[in-house]
Amino acid sequence: MNLSVSIIVPCYNASHYMHEVLLSIKNQTYKNIQCILINDGSTDNTLEIINTFSDERFEMYDQQNKGLSDTRNFGLEKAKGDFIFFCDSDDLLPPKSIETLVSAYTGKEDIIVGKTATYSWYKKENISSLPHPSEKQVIANNHFEVLIKNMTEGLSPIAQNKLYRKVFIQENHLKFLSGIYHEDELWFFETMFRAKNVMFIPEITYLYTVDNAQSITKKKSDKNLLGYLSIIKTIYNKYYLTYPQKNISAYYIAYLKKIVIGNFKHDSNYSDEAVLEMERTFREANPEFNDEINLKNIEKTYFKYLNTISLKDSNTIKREYFNRPVNSLRKHFKIIMFRIFNSNSK
Asked: What is the CATH number of domain 5-216?
């Protein structure tokens, strides 16, 4: 099968990285690719580097700054391949990345996920890797097994380094939510909510740069918090209320609340308005929990506990749950379970 792959690369002020990134795509051993490069209003010479790069498989577009979500959505509109692959403009692809991912395809998978190495651009070496199964796994995602796996074991919820079947994207009308930070978290939920078959392969097929100081993940601000809150509200309104029988949404909302509270613990720079919005969102996105889900009883109890904590005001959360030596929600939960167990055994 000579399947084609559309590689979508949003580019914003990436002149320091751009040439090497483009070379890593050009030098892929798998040749049947369409590379869609979109300059998203860069103020450095990113566009100049893109325009001087010659390869007939590369398509160049220039637009006013619209942000990552809208830029990726534009790329989806231009994609002609059988598969979609997202690459950021400061990350690299090992030479056999696309070949390895495509060769794993059996004709059934909606999504194929490669292993992502964290990479030091300045040292030119791999540091570690993002959470990923250690061995090949083929998951018939009939009961939201991938989302459950992320909640209980941890996965990499980035949009990059995943081969998406384009027909799957089109049939489900999937797009990135415009104008928010952490859009990948919602994209991960929506794709894994709908995917029927997902494959994880153990080979490293993506180098994720972690020493780019300009990355939004390095800069905590109100936009980071509000991005997560938008995701919670979207899942609550679009999935929990629409598909009440598919109660993965309730538990996933609690999982995302845990992430937000954890970030809130470490960051005191959020504005009062943003914190009030957090409290309001937590109260409004207050799902009921059905036990008919493939989680252990202790895990079900934990996520319900997290949701209960989220309904308290922010000062109470900070005062009662992040004081040393018991400085985490998980530790508080273990103490509560220990006390309940001891009282029941008397």
From this structure: 3.90.550.10
